[in-house]
Amino acid sequence: MADQNDNQTLTAKQAAALLQVHPQTLQKMRCRGGGIPYTRIGRGIRYRVWEVEQWMKRRSQTSTAQNET
Q1: How crowded is residue 54: how many other Cβ atoms within 10 Å of its Cβ?
Q2: In a domain, 25, yes or no
Q3: What is the pTM of this model?
Q4: What is the CATH number of the domain that holds 26?
């Protein structure tokens, strides 16, 4: 059975607030590719909370000497 949190979604504005970035940053990431997975519902964009969290974990670094991905 799927966890209740698996279905929680954020709007682009909510995801941007969580990540402390401008919503346009997420829009650019969607256009360029390689950003957070998202779903388009009509004209709206939705991000699954767990995918935002996983994306942040994959980008974690312990040193500025590490290469960014």
Answers
A1: 13
A2: yes
A3: 0.79
A4: 3.90.105
Which tokens hold the place of 18? 């969580």
Considering its fold, how many domains does the chain have in total? 1
DSSP string, 15-66: HHHHHTS-HHHHHHHHHHSSS---EEETTEEEEEHHHHHHHHHHT--S-TTS
Task: Point out which residues pair with 45 in neighbouring strands.
Answer: 40
Q: Going along the chain, which residue ranges are E strands?
A: 9-11, 39-41, 44-48
Host domain of residue 40 = 7-56
Interval 39-51: pLDDT, tens: 999 999 999 999 9
